[in-house]
């Protein structure tokens, strides 16, 4: 598959790289990507471990070379540039702070490489120390820092030479829950204030959804879907994306014949038939009749509705305060629902009727290799 | 970890406490290159004939051996010392390290080899310290020491250092015997340019010589005998310059205060017996001191000097320090 | 929550254990063993009338000043040149995997253990005026008189010292390089630094403690050089070891020899003190093991070409001397023109060998192996115990005391020991004692650095998984530390196997090891057999090191990998 570089974006990339697997007999792993990142955008790469996110980041940084393809940054092709000349900032997963330098020396490192006058370096470092609330730690050795402090030093160091784009490789992975949340907010704030472009790698969907302007979902070395958080969440193109971002009820169904007057007829496992209103775009390209998944987000599931689709028993209840998570067993399926306050009759073992907002349901292709 | 450690230490102690030897014991100090076959012969003969257990303790060189004797003066550990040469004689006398004993067979010793008339140190073998050459590599053979300073020999001579080795020291004495106190430094000044290397000991010098690095080396008069015997070649020859040579005479003595003086006397008698004297040439590559013991056929390639250059021990003892210092100063010029 | 509690408990328990069972007794025992003989010498030198005046007089004498200037110059150039020559090799070694690396690792120890006389003879055979190099030059440039004539002189001494030392610099530096986290270099690259600047600003500072240590080590080894300086320096150059030897061996002035030795100790103690400053920084590297990229033509033609040409150069200038001696051992009478023969080897197993050497070959071999095995086991055992005990401390004065033996003339130590206990203990015991002194500083420094870098996290992880401290030691700590332990063991064995002076002084002729046998063969004209024995000595040592180091190397690497990734 040979494609051209996307024509829009500050960073545009189209490349391919293959790796032999550790054990000789297995097929090699191929990473393939094509996308663009806009200026001042916060772009996330998400996907399960081993899907190639970090490698993609390293390709952009120049720490690895693609087998084929091109990478263009600010209309300059950087494919063959060494990392040192790409003007890219990189925050490593465990920060890779220089153990032989102090905090301020770490931050000043890139500036010294730029051969800036020392007064300017001092000013900039002071400024960064202040932005990252590190003033008191300037002369500390890095092995005396806490996790959060290290993380901030790593960020400050990467931002100091004013890179065109900042790459972050799971920078919060090693931090505890609370700290992660705080730093995440700080990072987003900082990105808004300083206005830098960032590519962020994470395997946590929550992180990706809350931080990103746009995100790309990856699997097995390929990008499956790119879009804003809302787009990807609301309009996942595959069941994998649907399940990776947020919770999903995937109900196998049979879609029948061509829809007439915008209504697609579905048959559910419990032989219930539904009529799904779809616009023509959504139907185009789907082979009919065919086997599909009906995606219903838990928050779209309604208990004891006007129109009942399933009947089942409540298997499990988890109370979260502002909502309750309900698991309902029915017709060989386990459905998840998130129910707001004030819904009566939520008692374990009780039989309930279940329905959903049909207008928010999506039809997804059933992938052969799903699960 | 500690337990294993102490086990190890324990086993070491057990090894160290191994007790050996029956019969009366006789401790003999010598230098480490004293030939093993001679030691074995001595051990065998003294056990069989006198029921004596000879325990050899060897030292890296005669210097450390001598130092050890001084350290142990008054309460000596050794009974007999083999291998101190004529140049140690007066120092040993001054330190009063040995007791006199004239072994049986002493009257057969070549007269000019007896450096101690009181027999505190008795000579048991001797050899000339002189140059050897590799006849395959050297075209023009020098006849005199003076000729050796000819520029054709530039970079072709290896000697041992007079400051650190006994052959080197003997060669320094040779030049003093030949050229006198006034002339020897001038001779060395001329010789210096032809010297390739001055090694710390005989080993390095002779090793470099046999490896083909230079064709002339300071060694012993009987060195060619080894090559004849074991390598079947006469390519290496002794170089007797000016028809004369300086002899290194090795002595043996009974330590003053020795625990087993009777055993020690038996050992000295054996060392000067015709049987042992006959073993010396082809084992030690030195010559026997007894006039009535002939040389084996192989010694036809050994050096024979008409004139013995040896300075008197008194002269050496009185001046050696000064001569060495002057030599060192000259060589560093 | 539960996890933290357990860790806290373990820490408390660990510290508790440390205080109760982790006694410093071995440390003080070592100090006593090491410094008692040294004190003997110093006491002998200075506790007599007029000693101080004599010492001051000596300090002002031109002999002292000339010797000091020469020794410093010679040692400085030797150290710098050894490291410069080793640096490219350490780079290839530390950054890449290549076929035969395991063998190279073991091979690199060999020059370190060669007895001085064999080094000199190898140098002479290869670089000498009738050496291999000059004969090759004559072939390449016929009749033009292109010759290598600098062997005898200052630069010849440096050349021999580099020959001696560069290989172990290469290995230790390469191993230190292997441990540098590659992400630090990547971080530097993303911050705009090119390869060269990354090298000078990140890699070099991280290597600096090792480089400083090696510089000091080679400096000391060269400062204490004896045979090489005398043979190649001729009459012009002297080290303090030469002065000591002359006083002790020729002038029979023991007091003065001790005086000079004492002075030298003070001087080198000062140099070693410098090391504490570098040592302090040594803790900061992270343990990072990884599978290195393999060096192949396809992937990295330029680096491969460079690595090959470097190896070729090293082989030509530093392996060739060894090889040419090996070749001589197969020649008739060891002569360059002699025909090929196995006679020199056959004679080693004949009665002739026993007559010259005094022992059968098998006994000599067993002695060497038993002695060096004991010394290495003790040195590594005690060294690791102390390294473990000090894992929370930065490099400090306590460690310095264990490094000071490096600054003591070994010959002097052996004399001191003989003076102290020569008649009271068996020569075996004394030899182990002396060689422990010889091997310990390097062993300790290797283990100390490595143990400090390991940190506690992995042991804590093991503890959380239910391992007792004892189990954690055997299942986690020691497997991860296998590489440094192997290196330390191999070097301890090498220094013991290669030692000649202690065996000569303390063995009193009762203990014959391989170097003593070589020395005796040479002392009795058997040069060809000596080179053959030298060849066997090297081959056997090589095999022993392979055995020590080849032992489940892969497994150890795997363990370290996990360590690297866990962080």
Polypeptide structure, described:
The complex is a heterotrimer of chains A (371), B (333) and C (567). With 371 residues, chain A is an alpha+beta fold. Chain A has two domains: 230 residues, Rossmann fold; 119 residues, Nucleic acid-binding proteins (OB fold (Dihydrolipoamide Acetyltransferase, E2P), Beta Barrel). Chain A has nine helices and 20 strands. Chain B has 333 residues and is α/β, with parallel strands linked by helices. In chain B, strands 1, 2, 3, 4, 5, 6, 7, 8, 9, 10, 11 and 12 form a twelve-stranded mixed beta sheet that branches. In chain B, helix 5 links the parallel strand 6 and strand 7. The relative contact order of chain B is 0.18. Chain C has two domains: 201 residues, MetI-like fold; 200 residues, MetI-like fold. The N terminus and C terminus of chain C are likely disordered. Chain C is an all-alpha fold and 567 residues long. Chains in contact: A-C, B-C. The interface between B and C is large, with 68 and 70 residues.
Sheet/helix structural class of chain B: alpha/beta
What is the beta-strand fraction of chain B? 15-25%
User: Architecture of the largest domain in chain B in CATH?
Assistant: 3-Layer(aba) Sandwich
> What's the CATH topology label of the largest domain in chain B?
D-Maltodextrin-Binding Protein, domain 2
- Stretches of chain C where pLDDT is under 50 for at least 5 consecutive residues are 1-21, 282-289, 552-567
Mean pLDDT of chain C: 79
* Biggest sheet character of chain C: none
The CATH architecture name of the largest domain in chain C reads: Orthogonal Bundle
Instruction: Give the end-to-end Cα distance of chain B, rounded to a whole number of Å.
Output: 59 Å
Number of strands of chain B: 12
Q: What count of domains describes the coordinates of chain B?
A: 2
Element-level helix/strand string of chain C = HHHHHHHHHHHHHHHHHHHHHHHHHHHH
Q: Give Rg of chain C in angstroms.
A: 25 Å
If helices are DSSP runs of H or I spanning 4 or more residues, what is the number of helices of chain B?
Answer: 10
